[in-house]
Amino acid sequence: MARDTGPDETGSSGPGDQGGNPRGDDLEKRRRALEAAIASKRPEPVPDERDPKTSGLSGIGYALRLSSEFIAGIVVGVAIGWFVDRFAGTSPWGLIVFLLLGFGAGVLNVLRSAGLIAEHKIRKPDGDGSTTE
Amino acid sequence: MANDPIHQFQISKLVPIEIGGLDFSFTNSSLFMLATAVGAGAFLYLTTSSRGLIPTRMQSVSEMSYEFVANMLRDAAGTQGMKFFPLVFSLFMFVLVANLFGMFPYFFTVTSHLIVTFALAMLVIGTVVVYGFWKHGFGFLKLFVPHGVPGVLVPLVVLIEVISFLSRPISLSVRLFANMLAGHITLKVFAGFVTSLSAFGAVGVAGAILPLAMTVALTGLEFLVSFLQAYVFAVLTCMYLNDAIHPGH
């Protein structure tokens, strides 16, 4: 796709068009922008001397942590859905909807505790500008 | 007793107390909670009482635990978070000492009961919610609305964030409880294999070496888990407190 000398899927013949395939270029540009946006949302990869993912024994702790985060999200979703159904009489829709939401929350928990979302920023030792204190 | 891996978690009443139809008995769990608090407090007090400029070995253990928790809190929540240091340090020491006390043979493991760890987790989340609302008023609710979300998606994202927030005390407590429970049961099961195998004579005794080695290895692992779970509990406490101090992300 990067080379504009070969035939592309649009059926236009020859490398005559100077700007390349406009639609492909647009897609490419948007893909790059998306990648940059995603990369900016990710936390900086901090070199950590004790990487929880690689060391054998504490890897178990890491696995238990992630699984408990995931399960907790689903459990809370189901509990809320069950109570909504019980008090609003909407069985089974509350359970279905909140189970799915709980699934989403569980995935969010896992991503957050795996450090794949830049959420809990490391605060600077000397405050961070909030002057409410 | 020897082959019942659950027996160690049984609650037994030491001093039955009943007030107004409610059971306030002093149980073995209460005894070990008391022992944990007294043990941790006495250790910290006695080791730092000499206040040597050049610390003794024990004094440096106390100072290291202080530094460890203080750095953890400062990294996660900034200097403003340091007002929560007593809470975080007490939680860390309580969980750590309770876990380590549980490693003594015949001792009761306080943190292997869900209600104990859940109470600790609710203490943390309660602090976060109360402090968040007291400090920021309804601005604390900004915690549930990450910025940069398109307007259409806000209700969905808020619902997911609320569920995610509510799941925190559960995951916090279940993690600690499940680790301690599973670890102690595994240890007991493998230790039980040693006694049951050695009942089969010479061959059994020779075969019992394998579970014995496993038990030794698991004991080491359990010490690691004890420390790691106390650390994880304290780290997550710091992160949640950070949310209460800076709810706007």
Number of strands of chain A: 0
Question: What ranges of chain A have pLDDT less than 50 throughout 5 or more consecutive residues?
Answer: 120-133
The helix/strand series of chain A, from N terminus to C terminus, equals: HHH
Question: What is the domain tally of chain B?
Answer: 1
Tell me, what's the shape of chain A?
Answer: flat
Through-space gap between termini of chain A: 56 Å
For the sheet with most strands of chain A, the description reads: none
Helix and strand composition category of chain A = mainly alpha
Low-confidence stretches of chain B: none
Instruction: Give a quick account of the main beta sheet of chain B: strands, pairing sense, barrel closure.
Output: 2 strands, antiparallel
Order of helices and strands of chain B: EEEEHHHHHHH
Radius of gyration of chain A: 24 Å
Explain what the structure shows.
The complex is a heterodimer of chains A (133) and B (249). Chain A has a domain at 56-113. Chain A is 56% helix and 0% strand. Chain A is built from 3 helices and no strands. In chain A, helix 2 (56-88) runs antiparallel to helix 3 (93-113). Chain A starts with 21 loop residues before the first helix and ends in a 20-residue tail after the last helix. Residues 120-133 of chain A have low confidence and may be disordered. Chain B has one domain (7-245). With 249 residues, chain B is mainly alpha-helical. Chain B has helices at residues 28-48, 57-77, 85-101, 114-136, 154-198, 201-207, 209-245, and strands spanning 13-15, 18-19, 22-23, 26-27. Helices cover 69% and strands 4% of the residues of chain B. In chain B, a hairpin with a 2-residue loop joins strand 2 (18-19) and strand 3. Chain A binds chain B through residues 57-58, 60-61, 64-65, 68-69, 71-73, 75-77, 80, 98, 101-102, 104-106, 108-109, 112, 119-128, 130, 132-133, and chain B through 74-81, 135, 156, 159-161, 163-164, 166-168, 170-171, 174-175, 178-179, 221, 224-225, 228-229, 232, 239, 242-243, 246, 249.
